[in-house]
Queue: 4 jobs
Job 1
Amino acid sequence: MKIAIVGGGASGLMAGAILSNRGKEVVIFEKNEKCGKKIYITGKGRCNLTNNCDTNEYLQNVVNGSKFMQSAINQFTPKDTIEFFENNGLKLKTERGRRVFPESDKASDVTKTIEKCCSKCDIHLNENVEFIENLDNKFKIKTNKNIYVFDKIILACGGKSYSQTGSTGDGYKFCKLLNIKVNTPYPALVPIKIKNSFCQQLCGLSLKNVSLNAVVDNKKLSFFGEMLFTNDAISGPIALSLSSYIHNSRNVELSIDFKPTLDFQTLEKRLLRDFEQNKNKNIISIMYGLLPKRLSNIFLETININSQLKVNMITKEMRNKIIKTLKDFKLSYDGLYPIDCGIVTGGGVDLKEINPKTMECKNIKGLYVIGESLDVDCLTGGYNLQTAFSTAFACASNIE
């Protein structure tokens, strides 16, 4: 039996490793000059390859496709991923939020480890699959170099994010040619554009332990953690996570709670104490104790309080406005960055077309779809790569 894997990324390499270890004849087609090109840039070059959580928590972090992933994640759990890499010589470490990284902090070591497991595979680099034809019990593949016939095909082509890594939506194209339904791809885990002009002044400022709150089509959402201002957007873990929920929403209201662990009354007591101890100082000096310096001036400008006003001149109304805004700092939503800027792609091959236990297309026997090509996307924290590995395992371990 000859099996073709189209795409040498995370899911394709994992499928190749498992199949070749089971004695299957595997050819991996990779359009780039090397495999795992997207792996190299994940986790800022460190590769957050999974999350050290149980299956239930993994499923809670799946934005789309949670029910579909139940079988695959139970076949190959985060613990299995950790064991796979450690058993193959890669030392791992678990950091804040149970994020798992290679001890070396080098994403390239993740790729090298999984490539080593694919040593029995025939890997064709710089070979782009251009066309796939279903010949009933076999499949014809036309590349830029040759024509081949295989018994089974695994599509592991990725999504449409980071197109410079080769993720250009090829899997969607092949599926559409084979009459498999594809849901419109959209950006997931992507910066959120903000209209407020102060974004430019705050570019590069990172905020920790804040809550990013949203009302999305009358539904409330909240994410706690770290965020970052860019030139015209907000980014960082909590902003990226929120973006996955608002891609097709018309009405989005955004705000930041700078002090989510303090309620209004507790914050008021702290402010009154600070005011009492610093009566003759400017209000800006009090704000420096509550917010980063760059943000403090903008904060006071937003609520029309002169930064040089003496603390003993601050009225109760002004004080209440400060507290209220610390808990509910409004941002003006201006859409999402385009799909090519997303960490992952939402949308993709309709899950109703796929057997969740084996990743085989229900209407085309011998054709499988795994990884980011599927209409599954997760929050940040290693869950998306775990999806790639779990779907690859479900597919490869069930091919006879």
Note: The radius of gyration is 25 Å.
Job 2
Amino acid sequence: MKLPVYLYGHPVLRNVSEDITPDYPDLKKLVEDMYSTMYESEGVGLAAPQIGRNDRIVVIDADPVAESHPECAGRKLTLINPHVEVLDGDAVSRAEGCLSLPGLSENVRRVEHIRLTWVDEDFNPHSEVISGFLARIVQHECDHLEGKLYIDHISPIRKQLIRSKLSNIIAGKVACDYPVKYAPRR
């Protein structure tokens, strides 16, 4: 089932997510719905806060960007309770977008090498060093679990320049090709 994507301004996007346990109700169905939502929205990643849940769940399918980023080929990950450790290396600036911020794209500095630890849908533990654009996708999605958005990484001047676009998202003045949930009216 395709779920609505919560847009910028909705409070759920600013909450820190909680780890889940093996008795989480209907986890496999939720993960399936998250993948469906991500594919229908033409994203390469989706975090649970983006569908209104503050649970540490992320789905990623980076294969659509493999032509320009070979490290993404065949990389489909279901991350339960993921945690990112930054490894040594310089930060690189690249454009990022987000399903929760439709119509926007900004350059964000992120490190190129991380260690990711997580459990899969069956709660089997995993740990992997991830590099390149895949590391960027993972960091972007895991930021959602910490109540952060990629615009939190841009300069105050850039944020000021996109302020009216952010206000339009909050006001519901954006067009999306996927179902969305706007911030509650004040």
Note: The first helix runs from residue 27 to 40.
Job 3
Amino acid sequence: MAEEINESSGVTITTLDLKKDSKKKNRIWEIDFFRGIAIILMVLDHLMWNIAYFTYHYFDVATVYASGIGFVQNIQNENGIYLPSYLFSYMQTGYLYYTWDFRIALRMVILIIFFAVCGISFKLSKNNLKRGLILLGFGLLITLVTAIGCSLDLLSISSSLICFGVLSCYGTIIIITHFLKKLVLKLAKGDVKKWYFTSIMLVLLILFGYIFIEISGYNYQVNFNDPLSFFIGIIGNIIGFSSFGGDYFPLLPYFAYFLVGELIGETIYKNRESLFKKNYKTLKPVTFIGRNTLWVYVVHIPLITLIHAILYWSAGYNLALF
């Protein structure tokens, strides 16, 4: 380990210490904070989805609503079992949230913040290609696990297969942006303004395509028994004109939000310095989560599912039905 002497104080400082101090100093805490907020809200949203999934799984919700009962009282599931009151209240809260109209707007705000912050991080990162490949690798691993589950009839293809989830989307966007930016700057001979222009045009084009698909209501219906139809469905799932499976994150419109964040990084954070000089200690738990979003995302879904499985199993439910 190399050492350096501070001439004014005579204190010996290792180069490792210097690297740690430099890395810590260059960390922009508000980026970690907003990323942490986004991932916390995303985890809570997935928690509510998991509750809603169990609700639909164990109860005939359509029959309940048709009878006019709603979720105002505890009812039997298809096996004639009543939920314990504590579990029923918990399930009711999650189900009502997930079917709440405000949830749709809140989810979109969360995702816009998340992908915009990811775009800012792209500007600040020194090895985007490696980061993009790692994220895509984790995303493909999740796809493989859910595909195996579907092939063994443990999961439903239409609702549980994660064809192109948030990690795959995020990783793909990083890889595309990495090579696209290099190409544009090479053609423009290093003129960053050309990259700004290209990004703005891409944002408008992506949003136009997304709005067009939404207005037209076009959604390619996949025939899972037809290999060609399934392949077209996968392509549509990636682009955004065929939605099936869980954790659905197509390139449209999230690529646009990412590019907006990247432009913010290129302009507002061009000097790689925090806009807020004071790092509040009370916010450190959130910034810690923001620095470790990948692991939080990978761990939280199986953990939430396991906890709910234990809850229902302890209440006497047959988990084989899951």
Note: The longest strand covers residues 3-5.
Job 4
Amino acid sequence: MNVYDFDGTIYSGDSTVDFYFFILRRHPSVIRLLPKQIGAMAKYKLGKISLTEAKEAFFSFLSIISDISSETKLFCERFQNKIMPWYRAKQKSDDIIISASPEFLLKGFCHILGGIRLTASEVDPKSGKFYSENCKGEEKVKRFKNDYGSTKIEEFYSDSHSDIPMARLADNAYLVKNGKLYKWEL
């Protein structure tokens, strides 16, 4: 089976950033949380809080949205054109997406793509609180093994060097840059 990172790999850009601006346009009141979000990012950059804690502060805007399920569905429908053509041409029914983006956000894309499987950051869509560690780096390997056991990865695709631990699990790994695939020499 093939395993794919999502943002910057099969999705052109960062779905979380796109979703935030989508929500901001539809619910301008979320801007009031910007100082909290910026403060948390500064604390993360200074090493005072973890990435998971910084992301929880960022996702606190979810608490303002009354029907996040409808918003995520609409977002996925409107932004499905950002799924890269190379992926759509290569896609198989047993593909797995593994991502640091929130599961509640990516589920809609997985549904649009035919119900492919997903392992992602577990975030409460009502509060922005993380149920588990951010699904990035070594955490991706841990989550993959927990969800799929010793399933063989034929090909792994990512745009990020933070995914080297996942790439090492695959028979073949590819680095994705601007929609182009390069053999990942590890």
Note: Residues 15-26 form the longest helix (12 residues).
